[in-house]
């Protein structure tokens, strides 16, 4: 007899944005606004841009938006669309999220707006860029673009969301000496950019979901388990030897098949929050750089086991 795993169709759903708020918005040539990145309008003089006539140039600016609904842990995908032309693409930028109350940030102003909240920088992106363009992720989590710059185009940037229900998104536009006029954009004449649309979508994780973020020797990594029993304890263990499987006695759950090869090291148990999400952060020994590491987790309330994670320590 054969058992087939159920096929889960995990739909990607659009995330409506609201209350576009910015530190500065361009009014030269046209009136640009962070609200124009979710109006569905793709014409050339529409979107958010930052050329500042007061300084005859471009400075670092920030825009934030509320998500219309709370986003639990899952995958978030951003499409940053530039349809203005003449290489008005983003040069260096950083994406963050918050779980703060919507009343505490994003007041809807296009200039000197309230962009202050408890922001969590999103880490470990998946990145797809127009042909010929390249990127690097800097130590602060920002993405720096290089290569042959397209006239128009779309960046597709994906991340896994942190614990809690996300209420808002922050886009920081940052300068860098490699960019025209230090950026933050790639327009050759002044470092400007136009963000015509910011399309955001969300995909939930399937089952008890384990992931490792910033698994780099000498740095702080975060292990995250989502879809656990709210308020329950979660066990996470690792192996440097392989992905098993091995039958092990897990306290409270009995014999459990772990996707780990002995010797297995259990990390401190961690309690899931009200959304069933648990995070464990700790420093990765520098000596582990370059070595493969396997991780597995067990929900100690339901005894469900997660996906296995296999990564080379960076
Ligand atoms: Ca638009
Ligand atoms: Ca500049
Ligand atoms: Ca608000």
Description of the structure:
The structure is a single chain. By secondary structure, the protein is an all-beta fold. It has strands at 13-14, 17-22, 48-49, 61-71, 74-82, 92-98, 120-121, 126-128, 133-137, 143-147, 153-160, 166-173, 194-195, 197-204, 209-213, 220-226, 233-239, 246-250, 254-258, 264-266, 270-271, 278-283, 292-299, 309-312. It folds into 2 domains: 13-204, Galactose-binding domain-like (Jelly Rolls), CATH 2.60.120.260; 209-312, Single Sheet (S-adenosyl-L-methionine-dependent methyltransferases), CATH 2.20.130. It has no helices and 24 strands. Strands 2, 4, 6, 7, 9, 10 and 12 form a 7-stranded antiparallel sheet that branches. The protein is elongated, with a radius of gyration of 22 Å. 41% of the residues are buried. The model has no long low-confidence stretch (mean pLDDT 96). Residues 57-59, 175, 181-183, 191 line the site of one calcium ion.
Short characterization:
By secondary structure, this protein is mainly β. It has strands at residues 13-14, 17-22, 48-49, 61-71, 74-82, 92-98, 120-121, 126-128, 133-137, 143-147, 153-160, 166-173, 194-195, 197-204, 209-213, 220-226, 233-239, 246-250, 254-258, 264-266, 270-271, 278-283, 292-299, 309-312.
